[in-house]
Amino acid sequence: MNIYSQNIYEVIENGNKKHILIIYNISRNHYVGLTVYNTASTNLTYISSINRFVDINDLQEYNKKNIKRISVFKG
Q: What is the pTM of this model?
């Protein structure tokens, strides 16, 4: 699977802003993604093409209304 920085979006969830990597489009309004982290931590996987870390065990569904904008990360 190819992973690109264009697949990283800013999301507001429970009043908190975070970045997610969209890996699957379920429907027009629902997506599956992983939280993106800037720094290494236990159980995070490094993705070199985006130069970020993700927790592959934290797969979540997101609604389009929570996605605010595409994030600009240089991979």
A: 0.79
Let me know if residue 50 belongs to a domain: yes
| Domain-embedded: residue 75 | no
Closest listed residue to residue 35, CA positions, set 14, 52, 15 = 52
Residues 28-38 pLDDT 10s: 888 899 999 99
Rounded to an integer, what is the distance from CA 68 to the centroid of its chain? 12
CA 41 from centre of chain: 16
Residues forming a β-bridge with 31: 25, 62
Given a contact cutoff of 8 angstroms between Cβ atoms, the answer to whether 35 and 20 are in contact is yes
Q: Give the structural domain span for 41.
A: 5-70
Domains: count for the chain: 1
3-state secondary structure of 44: coil
Q: Is residue 20 part of a domain?
A: yes
